[in-house]
Structures are given as structure tokens and as C-alpha cells.
Amino acid sequence: MADALLAVDNLHVTVEGKEILKGLTLEVTAGQVHALMGPNGSGKSTLSFCLLGHPKYTITEGRILFKGHDVNTLSPEERAKRGMFLAFQYPTAIPGVTIANFLRTALKAVRGGEVPVREFRQLVKAQMKTLGIADAFMNRYVNDGFSGGEKKRLEILQMAVLQPQLAVLDETDSGLDIDALQIVAAGINSLRAPTRGLLLITHYQRILNYIKPDRVHVLVDGKVVQSGGPELAQELERQGYKTFTMPATAGQPV
């Protein structure tokens, strides 16, 4: 656990008095992509929000270690400054705030100082090209009237601009058609780096056709019940989650 970029140890989390995560343990290593898969209601989004410090989620037991430091008590802003990032499943619209202003303000907050205009423009333009985003995009209001594909591309653009050490991608593939999925996947692949870890949360194997994970974890009823290589995702595609969700009987794995 000491060598892990992210180490989640025996995490128990409640939401409005109901326990959702029930002893979840998970590690993500720098330079790797880890896929977290599970059925609806298993706790995937709860984990993503908890990792970034959403106040609605209460940790009753366990730790979240980022680069060896316990971040349980840190605010979302402090976690972002330390290099953690969350791409939302349902990004929020912010009418009246342009993408250009939003990104520059976010970058300034993470860096802790002003960002030269020329440097900012060069950085953003290079990443927009990778994601197939037109220049006019920067003058639009954040997620206001966006399609599903545009919202997800903006999430990846934010990640590319902020350059976090840990990126948690919560069902980035949801609501995307095949063309948008390929573009978003290409953007994520371009951000793979030896110093960066990616936790890709998804229901389906389809995004893993374009982003090959180093490790796959199966989350059921608030716990990781199995981990393995990319072949585990293919097994889930063939058999579904029934192997892990059916009641235990003699000789039958759960």
C-alpha cells in the first residue's frame, strides 16, 4: 500500500444514514489505468464522490491515502490542489460562465498563482485539437445546452488542462454514441503518463475496447469482490454480474 498513488483501506461510507460502502479496499498505481466495474447500486459513484470529499458522504471507518497521506479530512479544493480530479457522470451547467474563464480560474486555483495568457492559450488549444473541439467552444457557457458528448469532452479537456496525478472518471462513457466515445477515449489515452493514475468507473466493457486497463476491479454491494487483468472485463461482458450477485450456494463463488 505504501507504493500506491491511491490507497483506499477498509472504507465504510454512509449517505443519509444508509451504509453504501461496506469495507472497500482498492489501490491505484501511478502509470496505470484501473477500471472499476459493477452493477447499479453497487457504490461506484459513491466512491468517486467520497474520494474527492463530497460533504454529503460520511466516512465512518477506513482511510483514503493519496501519495501516502490521509486525505479524509481535506476539502475538495485541497484535494484538487494536491493533484486529485473527478470527471462527473452528470456534469453541471453553469450559465453565464464561459469555458475560457472557467478553465483559467480552475488552473489558477490548482497552481496557486496567475497563469500567463499566452501559456494558457497554447495549453488549451493543443488539448482542444486532440479532442476535436472547435475554437468557438471556449466562448460558450459551461455545459449550458451541451450534448452528452460535449459535456464529456469538456470533462476530459479540464483534466488535460489541470494535469492531475490522479483522475477519477465516473462513467465517462454514459450517454455517448460510438463517435463521441472514440474521441473521448482517445483524449483519455493521450493523458496516460508514468506519473498519473486513472480510475475508470464504468458499467460496461465497451469503453475498455478503446482504453486498455492494467487492472480491473469488480464492485458489488459496497465491496471489491474480485480483481484481475483486462480479461476480467471480458468475462463480465460474457457472463454479466450474476456470478457475483447471486446468493451463495455450496461450491458457488460470490
Q: What are the SSEs and their pairings?
A:
Elements: E1 6-15, E2 18-28, E3 33-37, H1 44-51, E4 57-66, E5 69-70, H2 76-81, E6 84-87, E7 94-98, H3 99-111, H4 117-130, E8 141-142, H5 148-162, E9 166-170, H6 178-190, E10 197-202, E11 215-220, E12 223-228, H7 230-239, H8 242-245
Parallel strand pairs: 3-10, 3-11, 6-9, 9-10
Antiparallel strand pairs: 1-2, 1-4, 4-5, 7-8, 11-12
For CATH, the homologous superfamily is named as P-loop containing nucleotide triphosphate hydrolases
- C-alpha Rg (nearest Å): 18 Å
Stated plainly, the CATH topology is called Rossmann fold
- Per DSSP E runs of 2 or more residues, the count of β-strands stands at 12
Using the alpha-carbon principal axes, give the shape.
globular
Give the overall average pLDDT: 91
Task: Indicate the proportion of strand residues.
Answer: 25-35%
- What is the H-and-E element order? EEEHEEHEEHHEHEHEEEHH
Please tally the helical runs, counting DSSP H or I stretches of 4 or more residues.
8
Name the strands of the widest sheet in spatial order: 6-9-10-3-11-12
Which residue ranges are poorly predicted, with pLDDT under 50 across at least 5 consecutive positions?
Answer: 248-254
Proportion of residues in helical segments: 25-40%
CATH class: Alpha Beta
